[in-house]
Amino acid sequence: MALFDPRVLGARPSGLRRERIEASPRYRDGKFHNTAPLKSTLVEGQTLAQRFGIISEFVRGGPGRVPDVVLPVESPLDAWTRPAETGLRATWLGHSTVLLEIDGVRVLTDPVFGERVSPVAWAGPKRFHRAPVMPSQLPELDAVLVSHDHFDHLDYPTIATLARRNVPFYTSLGVGAHLETWGVAPSRITELDWWEEATMPGGRLSFTATPARHFSGRGTGANRTAWSSWVMRGESHRVFFSGDTGLTPEFETIRERCGPFHLVMLEVGAYHPAWGEIHLGPENALVAHRMLGGGALFPVHWGTFDLGLHPWDQPIETLATGAAEARVQLVTPRLGRPFEPSRVEAIDPWWRDLDARAEPATKAALRLRADPA
């Protein structure tokens, strides 16, 4: 096995794709920019000593950052054979990977089925629960949505597998260069800049790229591709997906132009003051949820990879407490169990039910059991 496969880095945008990028109002000086500059994060503004200290803490690990037991995972295969009774159903497959069923349209968000979110297969944050299904077990998809090109949202082996399906991809401006080099036909790639909208054939579902406060890159230079949050609108339901983002006043604009939402998917994990401007965390997720106008709150971007400096269940525990105080409808699905938001009456605190009777999280138990190939 090669120590490094350069294909994992993707490709730089060129040709007409490059021309579209250069025409974006957010692109200047060779890279994309947030609406307001970042002030103090690992991306910009940190001293070398600050960066080294945080990276050192991240590499060393810490108590509780990986669960001590194997997380419960269910199979959604039987449920997927039946249509959603309410028209809106979601299945959390780990991190930010969700199978959405919106008014009869199936959309897979930020598909990551690989064992590690890293440019190499032998190091980097490793999955600590198996994927509920293998990519080959996914039902027929109508679309794949990729918010941005970071490794924990855009996985090369997963995309190479999905490229063999005749499914369209919707993504942020420039990310199509990665998809195309990994085998996705150019005719099946739609790239959008903020506030651009694309409607699927037949008008069954529309995708709108909306503002997000983040950055991009796969090790070959930052911010050469765009990052976005997303609005999906079907015949009867609207869903918001944050991708990765920090808190931004543009959430209120999104509510005004695209709301209201029946389901709001917000990232809550991997937060830290050093990158507080580019990730929400649980407390800011509640603020963002209010700015977006409410709707069922579905937390993602937690519970699968150790990407932060906090205990693995701290994001959901903090969010559950805050949501109860704010009387927010919070949905906390088990991995692999489909749910229909309008039928969820209370949270399922499954992470609190884990105890010493569960299977110990040995190295063998935590190995990936869904081979993306």
Q: Order of strands side by side in the largest beta sheet?
A: 3-4-5-6-7-8
Number of helices: 8
In this structure, how is the largest beta sheet organized? 6 strands, mixed
CATH class: Alpha Beta
CATH homologous superfamily (4th level) name: Ribonuclease Z/Hydroxyacylglutathione hydrolase-like
Query: Uncertain spans, ≥5 residues at pLDDT below 50?
Result: 48-56, 362-373
Rg, alpha carbons: 19 Å
Count of beta strands: 14
Name the CATH architecture. 4-Layer Sandwich
* Mean pLDDT over all positions: 90
H/E element string?
HEEHHEEEEHEHEEEEEHEHEH
Distance between the termini: 15 Å
Topology:
Layout: H1 15-22, E1 27-28, E2 31-32, H2 48-60, H3 77-80, E3 88-94, E4 97-102, E5 105-109, E6 143-146, H4 156-162, E7 169-172, H5 176-181, E8 189-192, E9 197-199, E10 206-210, E11 229-233, E12 238-241, H6 250-258, E13 263-267, H7 281-291, E14 296-300, H8 314-326
Parallel strand pairs: 5-6, 6-7, 7-8, 12-13, 13-14
Antiparallel strand pairs: 1-2, 3-4, 4-5, 9-10, 10-11, 11-12
Helix pairs in contact: 7-8
